[in-house]
Design goal:
- The chain is an alpha+beta fold.
- Helix content is about 55%, strand content about 20%.
- It folds into 2 domains: about 200 residues, no CATH class; about 190 residues, no CATH class.
- The radius of gyration is 31 Å and the shape is elongated.
């Protein structure tokens, strides 16, 4: 029997029982839409976490003392990179480098009146970090740091624990690079609300010149963060920076490490990818099961119809081909509609974002207050192909089984 005749019959059958067709169509469309949007949602989570880690901590490349990474959790300020002005200027001239910013990470006891709290400090160059960390966009109250002032930005939860507000004075007590104790007062100029619990509860920010006076460093930093025009070139640029360090005669002490080689960052990315993989698998499993069950039900309830077609002379191969064509027609239309709906929702939310409120504050990954889905054309394509394959696969077994039944037995079925 010609395939064109079977295709025409499949089209008529699809329109004849509209309830059954609508059920199958809806199952495929809903699953494809959910998977298309789900992939964009998960892509947004991965991109947000990656972007926050890069901006707030890892950079695309870090230059630091070779012994620093082993003791990074202790925030040692005695293992600093010296001569960061000269080094930063030379690195900034390399192709592909967008920004070079010195930072000092240090721990300290913050005191305000009778209240105290331990915090993790980051000393920075305000002008450069306004383009790298973009803290100015996270300020909930007050203003951003400027120049070499003795101002301080506090995480909003840290400020609450200290009972301070904008304009109050906070003392920082810490160790200098020589191991002595040092203290200095700072005026609270702003409060940071990132939606990232670890930052809002423990982090504070001061200018690099003020930190130099507090810690006893001069033209030094615990790390030199390098941002690139393309993060995919990080390994190549890191090798070029290594050559610069050799030319300066400091490669014995300092090393340039791309983001892929930074232990804490690599572990975090691996954990995120594993979590995303598990959630994606659940999406596909549940979606596939839904389509499979719907198609099975649709085919099995047509036993009498199959017997009638067999009695009229339609061969077993024709039965299988007919049901596959019906599944192809319905799944194709449902898949296209689902892909369009899922992509439309993802694209709308990509620009506006999904407000998360404080839901992510206690999550170990830096996600923040707003999540923006990350849409790409392959997401609806993969979802459409998946829906089509599952619908076809679900039609094969019952159609093959039904095609082997004796016509008289099919006609007696209820």
């Amino acid at each position: 029997m010609k395939i064109t005749y079977l295709a025409a019959m499949a089209g008529r059958n699809s329109m004849r029982n509209r309830r059954r067709t609508l059920l199958t169509f809806s199952a495929v469309a809903i699953v494809v839409a959910a998977i298309a949007f789900g992939q964009a949602w998960l892509g947004g989570i991965v991109h947000t976490i990656f972007d926050n880690y890069i901006r707030l901590q890892a950079g695309h490349i870090k230059i630091y003392h070779k012994a620093y990474q082993e003791k990074e959790q202790m925030l040692p300020v005695d293992l600093a990179v010296e001569g960061v002005s000269t080094m930063g200027a030379r690195v900034a001239r390399l192709d592909g480098v967008a920004e070079v910013s010195p930072r000092i990470r240090f721990g300290g006891l913050l005191s305000a009146g009778e209240r105290t709290a331990f915090g993790t400090g980051l000393a920075l160059v305000p002008e450069t970090e306004s383009r790298v960390m973009k803290l100015s966009g996270l300020i909930a109250e007050g203003r951003y740091l400027t120049g070499a002032e003795r101002g301080i930005l506090l995480g909003i939860r840290l400020a609450e624990s200290l009972g301070v507000a904008r304009g109050d004075t906070v003392a920082i007590i810490t160790r200098t690079s020589r191991g002595a104790m040092s203290a200095m007062g700072f005026e609270v100029v702003g409060l940071i609300s990132s939606g990232i619990g670890a930052l809002d509860r423990r982090s504070f920010y001061v200018t690099l010149p003020a930190a130099h006076r507090l810690i006893g460093l001069e033209d030094s930093a615990t790390e030199l963060v390098v941002m690139l025009e393309d993060h995919n070139t990080s390994r190549e640029v890191a090798r070029e920076i290594g050559s610069v360090l050799r030319e300066m005669g400091v490669d014995e002490w300092y090393v340039a490490v791309p983001w892929q080689g930074q232990g804490e960052f690599s572990s975090a990315v691996a954990s995120v990818l594993v979590s995303v993989g598990i959630v994606t698998s659940i999406f596909f499993f549940v979606g596939g099961l839904t389509i499979f069950n719907t198609m099975l039900m649709s085919v099995f309830e047509r036993t009498r119809e199959i017997g009638m077609m067999r009695a009229l002379g339609l061969k077993a191969g024709g039965i299988i081909c007919l049901f596959l064509l019906e599944a192809l027609v319905i799944a194709s239309i449902g898949g296209v509609c689902g892909a369009v709906v899922g992509s439309g929702v993802a694209l709308c939310l990509q620009s506006t974002g999904i407000p998360l409120g404080g839901a992510m504050e206690n999550v170990s990954f830096p996600i923040g207050n707003v999540l923006h889905p990350r849409w790409s054309p392959r997401q609806p394509l993969y979802a459409f192909i998946f829906g089509l394959v599952m619908a076809m696969a679900a039609a094969v077994y019952p159609a093959h089984r039904a095609s082997r039944l004796v016509p008289s037995e099919c006609l007696r079925a209820i």
